[in-house]
Amino acid sequence: MKSAKPYIEKNKERFLDELIELLKIPSISADSAYKKDVLKTAEAVKKQLEKAGCDSVEICETPGYPIVYGEKLIDKKLPTILVYGHYDVQPPDPMDLWESPPFEPVIKKTELHPEGAIFARGSCDDKGQMYMHVKALEYMTETDQLPCNVKFMIEGEEEVGSESLGWFVERNREKLANDVILISDTGMIAPDVPSITTGLRGLSYVEVEVTGPNRDLHSGLYGGAVANPINVLTKMIASLHDENNHITIPGFYDDVENLSKTERDKMAEAPFNLEKYEKAIGINSVYGEKGYSTNERNSIRPTLDVNGIWGGYIGEGAKTVIASKAFAKISMRLVPNQDWKKITELFTKHFESIAPKGVSVKVKPHHGGQAYVTPIDSLGYKAAEKAYEETFGKTPIPQRSGGSIPIVALFEKELKSKTILMGFGLDSDAIHSPNEHFGIWNYLKGIETIPQFYHYFTEMSK
Q1: Tell me: the pLDDT tens digits for 193-219?
Q2: What DSSP state is assigned to residue 427?
Q3: Per the CB 3.0–4.6 Å rule, which of 210, 374, 394, 459 could disulfide with 229?
Q4: Average of pLDDT values for 93-107?
């Protein structure tokens, strides 16, 4: 396949302008106030897929937000690649930490992005990376180089658990039939160190509620005489880790996959600068489970983290109350062999058991998903490896990610397909955080590399 560089250079400004327009739409799936914007984004994605060359594009209704499905089928004898992405984004909060409005994209140069980066919510996760695939298709159709069939499935609920996606996949197995699934919702080690994500952690996400008295009480009249739900909740949460930062829930580690020394040594070959890592996120020391490196802690080991905690009076000034209730949101990242439903049950049973007298506890499961590992000897991985070698001039490093894309395990179960994760973002791109951004170089490099994957996968499938 010819290099896409000349085509990309000729259309660079248009590619950027189109992505910026998409980023202006606040498609926040977690907040019903933005429902019209989420639906508007689905329409925008449909329009761009049609322009890129899909012969058929439809907005498929689900019990939740719709899925945009498109296809370009040139020969049933050729392989079929299914591209998955999502058009919804995380809430932008806290707003006061954004240097520019989250839905008014701006391009700024940074140390890691000397050619500039687009700062906006969703720029990297996942509108920018999803849109690389749309533009890659445009290049292949416009230059008559599409070597195989392609299908697109772009959803609007990834940031809230992809609840409707399973419903859709189960009812559309034939429509979605494919030889490999391609996703860009991950990252790479560095611009000069390409990598392919071979593993994802699973997820169990819960919300807990601790209730004490039947109303907020005067802290002077009742303090010391009744259980304070906020005090109790913080003690309960603190007890979930021991002095070695090992999770104390009984049975939590029973099914954890333990990697061999050989595998851990291979992981350690990936370039990593601890000092730069600490500096990038503004800490003076790393922290985590004893006996594991930083890169192991955030990829091959399970975790438990509080994502939010609240209760009582948090307004300006003072209000002396013992709150009636206290709440927290807790996520557990899981590794291969850990079943998220089992872990949710273990957490619930343990958390209820450690509640002291004087309070009651409720655990509300939100969503979850299984961990996933793709073999590096698969046809898809080998094709991706060749694609990176073609455009980066070096062999990519296989690496496991600490993040979760629960639908990957669902795809393998329902569609019997392996997934290849070709991400072009960087860890420093602040996804899910204020000032999220995506490098222009990374965006264009993705558009350049993706067509090579199509080429090599088709060639190797013969």
Answers
A1: 999 999 999 999 999 999 999 999 999
A2: G
A3: 210
A4: 98
Q: Are strands 67-72 and 397-400 parallel, antiparallel or unpaired?
A: unpaired
Give the side-chain half-sphere CA count within 13 A for 397: 18
Distance CA 223, CA 233 (A): 16
How far apart CA 78 and CA 173 sit, in angstroms, is: 18
C-alpha 118, offset from chain centre: 19
Q: What is the dihedral of CA 249, 409, 127, 146, to 10 degrees?
A: 160
How far is the C-alpha of 425 from the C-alpha of 422, rounded, in Å? 10
Question: CA 376: distance to chain centroid?
Answer: 21
Q: What is the DSSP letter of 367?
A: E
SS3 351: helix
Fill in the amino acid letter for 200.
L
Amino acid at 282: G
DSSP tag of 241: B
**Total residue count of the chain as it appears in this document:** 462
- In the chain, CATH 3.40.630.10 sits at 5-200+371-460
For the residues 335-361, what does the mean pLDDT come to? 97
Cβ neighbors of 88 (< 8 A, separation 6 or more) are: 27, 28, 29, 38, 41, 65, 155, 156, 157, 158, 159, 160
Q: CATH 3.30.70.360 spans which residues of the chain?
A: 202-256+302-369
Strand duo 217-218 + 372-373: pairing: unpaired
Tokens of 116: 């500039």
Q: Do 247 and 351 form a contact (C-beta atoms < 8 A)? A: no
- Compute CA distances 397 → 29, 95, 264, 393, whole Å: 33, 36, 14, 13
Asked if the model's pLDDT at residue 263 lies above 90, the reply is no
Q: Which residues, 6+ apart, have CB-to-CB distance to 84 below 8 Å?
A: 153, 154, 155, 181, 182, 183, 407, 411, 419
Residue 357 is which amino acid?
Answer: K
Q: Helix crossing, 379-392 with 440-460: angle to 10°?
A: 130
pLDDT digits (tens, 9 = 90+) for 113-150: 999 999 999 999 999 999 999 999 999 999 999 999 99
Share of the chain above pLDDT 70, in %: 100
| Continuous H helices in 143-215 | 163-171
CATH number, domain 202-256+302-369:
3.30.70.360
Rounded to whole angstroms, the Cα distance separating 431 from 410 reads 23
* 5-200+371-460 classified as CATH 3.40.50.12780: no
Residues 6+ apart with CB under 8 A from 158: 29, 86, 88, 126, 165, 185, 405, 407
For residues 407 and 168, is the Cβ–Cβ distance under 8 A?
no
